[in-house]
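Q: What would this chain look like folded?
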Amino acid sequence: MSNLHTIAFALSVWTFLLLPRASTGQEILPPLDLTQPSGEADFVPGEIIVKLKEAPASPDAAGEIQEFEAVALSDNIRPLGNGAFLVKLDVDLFTSQSMETLAGRTAKVATELEKRDDIASARAGQPGVVVFRPADAAEFEAAVAAGEFENIALEGEPEELSNGNYAMNVNADLISPNGPSLRQRTIEALEELRKRPDVEYAQLNYIAEPYLTHLPNDVNFPRQWNLFDNGSGSLASAGGINLLKEWDNGIGDASVVVAVIDTGIVTDHPDIQPANMVSGFDMIRSDRRAADSQPGRDSDPTDKGDGVAAFFCSGKPLAAIPDSWHGTHVAGIVGIGGTNNAVGIAGVNWNVKVQPIRALGKCGGDAADIKDAILYAAGLPVPITPNEIVTNPTPARIINLSLGFKAPCSELPDIQAAIDAAAARGVTIIVAAGNDAIDASEATPGGCKNVITVAASDARGHLVERYSNFGPRIDIMAPGGDTERDDNHDNMKDGVLSMVKGGYRPMNGTSMAAPHVAGVAALMLSRNPALTPIQILARLKANAIPRTNQDCPKPCGAGLLNAFFPAAPEPADAAPAAAAGSPTNPEP
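A: My prediction, written as structure tokens:
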């Protein structure tokens, strides 16, 4: 803290990342074939689609095809388009003499149910449906979950009726162990129908499967546990944020601009999608810090590298550090790359406009440049020389700040003022909590008002206690990774993989966590552009995946980021009251 009082004008800021030890991150995994065969085509048992060579006089002229009873078709005939019909097998007619009827089996199932201690009463409903009342709701739910009812030929989930009753279906394929199943008989009836001279065609009522059109084909996507659905199994992770589910709702929109205030961008990276980037700016005043050929501030946000030799910087670090290409890594998480282009990685958004604004260079960045970068991103006028003022022609709806000062926001009123000005223009500002494993209120901008402060989680969905800041000021937690662990047991350290110059690198830090939230906020705006920063925060917190005290031994906000919103976000005039710490009551 004492160092603050020795600096007259600017504070040095460092990016909130932790580079992995002993990993170049340049390796490219072999392609993963996600088009695995799904087995035999499925169909609806007991249903056949038929078209006659000569159409009946009227669509409901069932009498004209009564002769189909010879192949055990019922009079349940539904007209379809193009002159075809959907006809159903009559279960009570198709059975052989050795096979009981569906109605008879339904009655037997009801009798068997009444013998159970956890069933108060049971009766046969219409053929194939049993109506019953549980004696104990908890025991009943446990029995259903354990599959006990499958032993008495019930299928599907119970449907709750009135007065505490439930209904369940009898599995038609199990109504007799001796005779043909409904599926077998359906195929037999199909073959018989196809032999008829008056039938143009007959087919099974096949069931289509989704082709997962929003499963990206980027070759390194299998390493991106942070983007997987939350859970276990294929393409799921305990630390995932349910992006696969959300991508079925939308993959972003190019109308949403996300400003990434950072080290700039590696413009010639082969995975960057030009359509996903909008012109940015270089807000660094110091030629020594910028290390480019253009003096002062300019319109070129290209990252020239932030690596330094030992003792180059006046403060810390004293040792040499390599180029981080930090801004490109952060932008890649948001979605500046060409997701689903069979190259590299996927981003949170497939369609978005990322605006790189360079405010960090060699030895970090100073408060004056970062303050003006925030104002520029929000579309406010900023002087770049004593006689020239610039205004952003494509103002951002979201600003990502994966950077920070190890000082409370009260020590940097100019940063808070810039944040307030941007928030007043409806800009959602998302910031990294910091990597010092301290209370986030002791860092800036994590402890500032009018921001969404993001802590870091690992592949287990736990707070990364090793580095992530924490405390009451945290709003939400998102994947920041941990390059010292392999909790998903894939023989690779659990960093967050994204783009850097020359390839890809796993990194960890709250710098990686914040752009996940920025990306999800962009997805929300793509579905409802009217959402305000207050509403975005409220919905993110309400939708978060809850965490236990074991997951978060220290306060980590509302929980783990959940990208999946089953319904579209509510319109702007239906905003819920914001919680404490939000932009309407933003005490840190």
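The CA atoms of residues 118 and 136 lie 6 Å apart.
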